[in-house]
Design goal:
Layout: H1 9-16, E1 22-26, H2 32-45, E2 54-58, H3 61-75, E3 83-86, H4 87-98, E4 109-110, H5 113-126, H6 136-148, H7 153-159, H8 164-182, E5 185-186, H9 188-201, H10 203-212, E6 215-218, H11 226-235, E7 242-246, H12 261-264, H13 266-269, E8 274-278, H14 286-296, E9 317-322, H15 325-341, E10 350-354, H16 360-369, E11 374-377, H17 386-399, H18 404-410, H19 420-432, H20 437-442, H21 453-470, H22 476-487, H23 489-496, H24 499-521, H25 527-538, E12 550-554, E13 563-568, H26 579-583, H27 587-601, E14 604-613, E15 615-618, E16 621-624, H28 629-632, E17 639-640, E18 668-670, E19 673-675, E20 690-693, E21 697-706, E22 711-717, E23 721-726, H29 727-730, E24 733-734
Parallel strand pairs: 1-7, 1-8, 2-3, 2-6, 4-5, 6-7, 9-14, 9-17, 10-12, 10-13, 11-12, 13-14
Antiparallel strand pairs: 15-16, 18-19, 20-21, 20-24, 21-22, 22-23
Length: 736
């Protein structure tokens, strides 16, 4: 028996179809890498194709390395002449040889993100552009998006007619391109764009590479963007032996510029294309695959296919409902610990998947509490994330001004014009007098050559002193809110308009949940006690990397991985899919979220458990949820109907009341001072007024009711929808 006879019939057909355009729709767990490597071997061994005439492209260095290793094993002698690379590395090889055709030296430099930011910063200074309005990251993001769509600076400016903001971005774009060209430099987007320009403009170069790469294979084709599509089309333009492999049902990277229509419209671009579906799954049980099929079939923008398997029927899908996210975390962690203790499995057999990074916080705390090793994949420990460390540094400085690291971290975060040179002068002054950094800051008038920076330092010191005074008579939750408000931290994140800004704000919201939870469960909550609690939870650095770990990751990070046992947590409408997706008028948005759910389901090999919390704390308030529509789309008879999850024991976690939407801050007594929220005699706004909230932004007041202890205000926010809140806690302000 030869190696090809070990493939299933559809895999064999994909291997044997070597001429002309070919679309391989490879479902999850269908063995696509095996097909690609065997196809390369078949071309060389059976079709007599020279190894140097084959190009195999994938997305990541890791994937390219794995493919290279498998190709070497199966092909053997001559395999080193096959180009197996990422898009970017392939383009660099081409440009190193022919960049002079574009006016660049062949030894051009490649700018990384920091280099790009430096260039943009200088350009903004030169063009008198206010970087508070046009953030450097925003400008770079806009330029990158334009390049990915093959829109040059001139076209961008023409398209911006009438839009002043876009016109300014276009001006920066044009200047940015001039600077890069002058410096003989390209950014990562240029590597693709310039290669396409080279192939389009120069027939000799285009013909050289078309003759070189007579057989081209592209993996993960559903993740390609416009410029990558153009590149592949040009290279395959002569012999048209283009084989693309992908799964439209796993296209989940639209936010990175991926264009699902590259795979959906493949037959329109190549009318003579052959389509082969790999639908046999080797990973999961029948029940898991049936659940995945019953969800994804609700998408309209997809290629029709149905995964099936010869594997066993397996266990039914488990769907557990919990009172809140704490019960959810408690039960999931306990169940994993119990299963591993029984000897039925290992920790690394388990993966917990969730929609947002912020969801990991409660789970992480439970794992630490139970002494179960875990690892965050595709992210960092909750308390190690920049925004969390920043806010905690403020709290540490308020609690203990001698923490120089905390002070140094936040003195210019958000930016308040206190530069590194000034900070160094203050530190030198303090070190010479054996003073803490904060004490030295208080003496800034005595430090020479600080100039105007001294006034900015005074402002920072005064702000911290005010926070310290407030901490004696207000709750931690209110102190947290005041910090965000007075420092402008949230506002600074919102102004960045970058991909990570929303996720960072969600993490800050989750930290508020932690604070509210701490105050409710501790008899005598204090700032010092809270910081100690956090320090104990976040101390996981001593875990041995060689041990078994339960894997925690977002659904986006899980793509390409598989585990025997998978938990999908937070299966609630408003969280997954998100509220913004639900209210969006774009059907593509909900379909991408459904594909993400499909990816999550198909990570499971033996058992899939979905969990749902009836109430979940969001931004310090409790929200009531209903099960995700994706859960409701799964055929009911695929679910296991067993006992409801047991209540969490009081000695493990005090049950949280679920009857209120936002809890009234409780009275605290400290150092003889008493603080209590006082109901306002009247509000500054009424129904119909436009108001602003620190987190939700601008909205319209649609109802005000007297709740006894406080006014309940209902606001329809422009971006966040309808929210109900207590007036004293919301601190709404009339807009101009």
């Amino acid at each position: 028996m030869n190696i090809y006879e070990m493939l299933n019939p559809m895999q064999q057909e994909a291997v044997y179809s070597t001429q002309g355009p070919l679309l391989i729709l490879a479902g999850a767990g269908s063995g696509k890498t095996r097909v690609l490597t065997h196809r390369i071997a078949y071309l060389i061994d059976e079709q007599g194709v020279n190894p140097w005439n084959i190009l195999a492209i994938t997305f990541t260095n890791k994937a390219a390395g794995e493919m290279r290793e498998r190709v070497d094993q199966i092909v053997g002698f001559g395999s080193e002449q096959i180009w197996v690379s990422t898009f970017h590395s392939a383009c660099v090889r081409i440009l190193r040889r022919f960049a002079d055709y574009l006016g660049y030296d062949r030894n051009f430099v490649i700018y990384d993100t920091d280099d790009q930011k430096h260039v943009i910063k200088d350009i903004c200074k030169r063009l008198n552009i206010d970087t508070k309005i046009h953030k450097e990251r925003t400008l770079l993001s806009a330029i990158s998006s334009a390049k990915n769509e093959m829109i040059d600076a001139k076209a961008y400016i023409l398209n911006a007619a009438g839009d002043y903001s876009k016109k300014r971005i276009g001006d920066v774009y044009a200047e940015y391109e001039k600077v890069l060209y002058k410096n003989n430099a390209m950014d990562f987007d240029d590597l693709l764009v310039k290669t396409v320009e080279l192939l389009r403009a120069n027939e000799d170069v285009r013909n050289y590479y078309q003759e070189r790469f007579k057989y081209i294979m592209v993996d993960e084709y559903q993740d390609t963007n416009t410029v990558q599509f153009r590149l592949v089309s040009l290279l395959a333009g002569k012999y048209r032996n283009l084989c693309v492999v992908g799964d439209d049902d796993q296209s989940i990277y639209k936010f990175r510029g991926a264009n699902i229509y590259n795979i959906l419209n493949f037959e329109k671009e190549f009318p003579d294309a052959k389509v082969i579906k790999l639908e046999q799954n080797y990973r999961s049980t029948k029940n898991i695959l049936n659940a995945a099929n019953s969800v994804i079939c609700h998408n309209k923008g997809r290629k029709e296919k149905t995964l099936w398997t010869a594997n066993e029927t397996g266990e039914k899908i488990v769907f557990n409902q919990y009172q809140n996210e704490y019960d959810e975390a408690f039960q999931v962690v306990n169940e994993i610990g119990r299963e591993v203790s029984s000897g039925k499995s290992h920790y690394n057999d388990y993966a917990i998947l969730y929609r947002t990074n912020a969801q990991s916080r409660v789970l992480e705390e439970k794992f630490v509490e139970k002494n179960i090793p875990y690892k965050i994949v595709g992210g960092v420990n909750f308390y190690q994330r920049k925004e969390i460390k920043d806010i905690l540094a403020y709290l540490k400085t308020i609690d203990n001004g001698r923490d120089d690291l905390a002070v140094q971290r936040i003195i210019n975060v958000p930016k308040r014009g206190i530069g590194a040179a000034s900070i160094n002068k203050v530190m030198e002054y303090g070190e010479a007098r054996d003073m803490s950094l904060f004490d030295a800051l208080e003496c800034c008038d005595d430090i020479p050559k600080l100039g105007r920076t001294a006034d900015k330092i005074k402002g920072f010191v005064n702000m911290i002193e005010v926070f310290r005074a407030q901490s004696e008579y207000i709750t931690l939750a209110e102190l947290f809110t005041n910090i965000l408000e007075e420092t402008g931290y949230i506002k600074a994140l919102e102004e960045e308009f970058e991909e990570q800004a929303e996720a960072r704000i969600e993490n800050i919201d989750e930290l508020m949940n932690k604070i509210v939870d701490y105050e409710e469960t501790e008899e005598e909550p204090t700032l010092s006690g809270f910081l100690e609690n956090v320090a104990l939870v976040s101390d996981i650095d001593s875990l041995d990397e060689n041990e078994d770990y339960v894997m925690l990751m977002t659904l986006h990070s899980a793509k390409g991985l598989e585990f025997p046992y998978v938990y999908m947590c937070g299966m609630e409408d408003g969280l997954f899919p998100s509220y913004m997706t639900i209210v969006s008028d774009e059907p593509d948005e909900i379909e991408e979220e459904r594909r993400l759910c499909y990816v999550g389901i198909t990570r499971a090999k033996k058992k899939l458990t979905m969990t749902f919390a009836k109430t979940r704390m969001v931004r310090g308030s409790t929200q009531f949820n209903k099960p995700s529509r994706f859960v409701r789309e799964i055929t009911p008879d695929l679910f296991y109907k067993g006992r409801m999850p047991e209540k969490e024991r009081k000695d493990q976690r005090i049950q949280r009341p679920s009857e209120s939407v936002i809890r009234q801050p409780k009275t605290m007594t400290s150092y003889g001072k008493v603080f209590q929220v006082q109901k306002a005699t009247a509000l500054d706004y009424t129904v119909g007024d436009r108001v602003r909230h620190i987190k939700f932004g601008v909205g319209t007041v649609i109802n005000i009711s007297d709740g006894g202890k406080d006014y309940e205000v209902t606001v329809d926010f422009d971006k966040s929808g309808v929210k109900k809140m207590f007036a004293s806690f919301a601190k709404l302000k009339l807009t101009d």
